[in-house]
Structure formats: structure tokens, C-alpha cells
């Protein structure tokens, strides 16, 4: 899974799945721009990337703002020389049942998960178009395919990311840009650690593999899609969920 000397940019890279993806890409040979709204926490992931012998560039960004995404891509290209791989990973939840869901909770999730993916992709596509190649990997969710009670906003945003992925894949396949999504199931992160033990056990009992996934499971698939091995794969949604949704 070679991404030797490629330049990658990962959003939401300060922690969780994004941090593991950024570090995995560096271990496979890429320089990585690590971008997050939470700038302070980017220092640790930069150390991990540099320990793997690659360049790290921390950038503070709010992906819901197009102007900030434009500036982020420009800074990455100016500093690292090009942009080969974009991983749209930044995402939030604002969970509650529909009866209690406030308009603001709906809007916040759409702004970050869906508009953020649009903003970063729009900002990056011109550079990739000029380079005649690139890899865009969007982090969706199993809930975008199967729904989840208490997550109407989140599930809708992640389903929309799948549609966006397929449309952009069709637009840019002719110039060597692939666009794919990965849809993780329940992954062991701070988010799932916070779920009460009883609920967690109920969740795990629904998974045929009888265990949560790891951020590394997601990162391995992202590294594959980012690599030269995956050049003929585009417009796909790869599910990583231990059989929870087939
Ligand atoms: P996480 O631990 O909350 O990490 C997400 C990162 O994105 C955080 O550092 C967060 O900063 C940052 N972020 C939030 N809003 C942002 C914005 N507007 N601009 C830039 N950065 C922003 O989440 P995770 O569990 O690793 O999830 C990563 C991705 O995988 C998300 O898209 C999520 O929907 C998806 N996913 C996760 C699971 C799972 O089980 N964990 C399953 C399926 C899909 P703050 O902490 O300051 O908000």
C-alpha cells in the first residue's frame, strides 16, 4: 500500500479516527497536513508523523467555512508542494430524537459533516485537476446506510456524503481523480468509550463479529484507497462494520 512521497491532507486529524489515519499515511510514506478546529491537539499528531520520518503541517480550520478551506488547501500546497490525497474526516454528532431535535442541532451537523465535505473537496479539486490525479476519501458512516434512532441529522448528513461521493467520482474519473467513501460501523473511540457499559454491550451484540472496530481498521482501508493499488476504484462506499450492515 504505497503512498511514498505523496502529500495527504486529513481533516479532523487532532484525535480519534483522523489522527490514526494521518499517522498511518505517514508510516506508508506520505507527508501529511493535519487540520482541525482544535489546533493545540495537532501538536501530538505532528510528533507521530515526524517520528515516522515524514513532514507534518498543522493547520487550524473550521471545515464549515469555505474561505477557511480554500486557505487550508493553499497553505498545504504552498508548504508541501502539491496535494495528492484528501481525507474528509472531520465530523460531529448532535444526537437526540426528532421530536426534541432543535433546528440548530440539525444545521450544525449538516454544516460540518456535509458542507464541510463539500467545502474541502471544492477547495482541493482544482489543484488535483491541474495535477491530473488525486484521491479523495470521505468518511461516511454505517448510519448513513441503515439509519440510527437519535441520529436523524447525523444519518442524513452521512447518507448525503455517499451521494456527493458518487456524483464527484463521476465528474472527475476522466482526469485520474478517484472519489470514494468509507462507512465505519461502531469504532472504538472516545465517542464509543463514553457510552454506558450496558448500552455498549447491547450494541456489540448486534454486530456479527461481536466486537467494535478499531480506528486502525478504518485507517487501513483509507491507506489502500489512497494508494496506487486502488486506481480503478471510484464512486464506491466501503463498509467497515464487522457485518453490522451488509
Ligand atoms: P472525534 O474523535 O470527535 O474527532 C473528530 C475531530 O474533528 C475532532 O478533533 C473535532 O474537534 C474535529 N472537528 C469537529 N468539528 C470540526 C470543524 N468544523 N472543522 C474541523 N475540525 C472539526 O470523531 P471520530 O470518532 O474520530 O470520528 C471521525 C469521523 O468518523 C467522523 O466523520 C465521524 O462521523 C466518523 N465515524 C465515526 C464512528 C465512530 O464510531 N467513532 C463511526 C462512523 C463514522 P473537536 O473535538 O474540538 O470538536
Structural features:
globular; about 250 residues; 7 strands; about 15% strand; Rossmann fold; binds NADP nicotinamide-adenine-dinucleotide phosphate
Would you kindly provide a written description of the structure presented here, covering whatever features stand out?
- With 246 residues, this protein is an alpha/beta fold.
- It has a single domain, classed as NAD(P)-binding Rossmann-like Domain (Rossmann fold), CATH 3.40.50.
- Strands 3-2-1-4-5-6-7 form a 7-stranded parallel sheet, with helices on both faces.
- Helix 3 runs parallel beside helix 4 and helix 4 packs parallel to helix 6.
| Residue runs with pLDDT of under 50 for 5 or more positions | none
Ligand names: NADP nicotinamide-adenine-dinucleotide phosphate
Order of helices and strands: EHEHEHEHEHHEHHHE
Radius of gyration (Å): 17 Å
Summarize the structure.
The protein has 246 residues and is α/β, with parallel strands linked by helices.
Task: Give me the secondary-structure topology.
Layout: E1 7-11, H1 16-27, E2 31-36, H2 42-51, E3 56-60, H3 66-80, E4 85-88, H4 103-131, E5 134-139, H5 143-146, H6 152-172, E6 177-184, H7 190-193, H8 197-205, H9 215-226, E7 237-240
Parallel strand pairs: 1-2, 1-4, 2-3, 4-5, 5-6, 6-7
The structure holds NADP nicotinamide-adenine-dinucleotide phosphate.
